[in-house]
Amino acid sequence: MITIRRELGKDTAAREALLDVGYGCARFGKVSHQLRKGRQPSAGLAFVACDCERIVGTVRLWDVATGDGRPALLLGPLTVHPDHRCRGVGSALVQHAVVAAERLGHRAVLLVGDAPYYDRFGFSAEKTGHLWLPGRYDPSRFLARELAPGALDGALGLVRATGQPLPARVEPARVKAAHLAQPLPQAA
Questions:
Q1: Distances (CA, A) of 181 to 23, 118, 172
Q2: 90 Cβ neighbours under 8 A, 6+ residues apart
Q3: Residue 9 and residue 181: Cα distance in Å, rounded?
Q4: 145 φψ region: left (φ > 0), alpha (ψ -120 to 50), beta (else)
């Protein structure tokens, strides 16, 4: 049975491995990655799908703003393990993420993806015509869904990241211990 829950810190390695299976290194070259790079997902909006505790799907939402300062979320990446595709796992993740975002008071979700797939969730290119992303992308794949009517009416400009930066990397304990075990230099 598939369950969807919030992503936990312990899920990092499994999520990254799943993204490698789904996208490989190509994910780092995507325009959406530039908006996620060095940022944390939006608070409470990172989810995994599990089959008997095994992570088989993932989706995250990220804080962004339009060029004229309207807050929005960026959905992605969404991926499902090949053994679990075509079973509704991706759909369930998208629906869960959008409902959670709406419940938290967010007003709009943007994404770069397949219009025929995301259309069923209410996403379209209708409200992204005067918005652009920092890099190369196919405008027909730049989609949006308003969670509040009119949230993107008249929106224009470059979409930019606004999320919290990732915390500074903490040195692993074994590296610190090795450093502390070294003798101090003698005064001259």
A1: 42, 55, 15
A2: 57, 78, 79, 80
A3: 30
A4: beta
CB 49 within 8 A of CB 2: yes
Gap between the Cα atoms of 27 and 108, Å rounded: 23
pTM over 0.85: yes
Is 75 within 8 Å of 109 (Cβ atoms)? yes
pLDDT tens-digit readout, 67-76 = 999 999 999 9
Q: Is 159 exposed, middle or buried (0-12, 13-18, 19+ CB in 10 A)?
A: buried
Q: Token pair of 119, please? A: 């259309």
How does pLDDT run across 87-96, given as a tens digit for each residue? 999 999 999 9
